[in-house]
Prior knowledge:
Elements: H1 5-8, E1 11-13, E2 42-45, E3 49-63, H2 70-74, E4 81-85, E5 88-89, H3 93-103, E6 108-114, E7 117-123, E8 126-127, E9 133-134, E10 138-153, E11 158-161, E12 177-191, E13 200-205, E14 212-218, E15 221-226, E16 238-239, E17 246-255, E18 258-269, E19 279-283, H4 286-292, E20 303-306, E21 309-318, E22 321-329, H5 330-336
Amino acid sequence: MHGSPKNRKRVRRGGAAFFLALFLLTVPAAATPAADSGSARMLIPVGHTVGIKLFARGVMVVKLPEDDTPARECGLKTGDVIVKCGGVSVTSTEQFQSLLQKTGEDATDLQVRRGGESVTLSVSPEQNEKGAYCIGAWIRDSMAGIGTITYVDPATSTFGALGHGIADTDTAQLMPFASGSILPSTVKAVKKGETGSAGELRGDFDLETDLGQLYANTSCGIFGTLTEDCGAVAGKAVPVGTARTGPAVIRSNVRGDKVEEFDIQITRVIEDAADGRQLVLSVTDPDLIEATGGIVQGMSGSPILQDGRLVGAVTHVLLNDATKGYGILIETMLDAA
């Protein structure tokens, strides 16, 4: 590449209310795929933030009080997922509470998923000061936040995002997936990353508008299909490639609705990394460092392009240096999808 980063940078604009406007934009000339791309899979690298809402299969126990409670006495543990109560499938925290009211003080069976195993426990609810029957545990059935779309497959309208799974904030365990969707999002502000403190993108998203439905929450990313009423997916796709050490760019939305390309270096490739941190990244673009401090939360999923090919996605930031981070190979994401 030649010229200053400012001159090289191509800005893509797309309204948050109509996410597919992003797909009507072309890849800059410097990133045009080589003519010998052959039969490589072709994907549209996106790089725009979206709101994400995910609903769990069952309810997850995220915290237990120190005092003796029915939950502790029956053997429930933090991270357990309650999937049935009295033989009835649990679908939400509200529905679970309703089932406990029907049970009253009588002992009832809880079917719990613990790791990869199914465990059955017997719990006797107790009345709280308001007269409601409960077991004394904090539970969660859903999560919402902002992340970045990595790619869209124009042939199938399927997409991948984040490059890592959605985990519960208290237990750090992957949320058991039941359903979810992506929503239009606009970045309103940035908390810059600093030594010892991860930064984050802060934005708004429309909870009433679904742009696509999720079908999986995996350790390598979340995956789904765009809704039919979003319109046809168009735009310039690029071939999937294999990452190597050297210069690359990430495509990310860190200001309003703009999608920009920023320079990075891939300093190491670790194909067999057990935790999915297969690429070691260093941000070299002064514009991105000025805007965010480097890699921040919400940028997870930003596509990584090298030699005009989609080779991976940003996944993590180093807490002791926001200009450094990790990525996942695109082949790994596609295998998980």
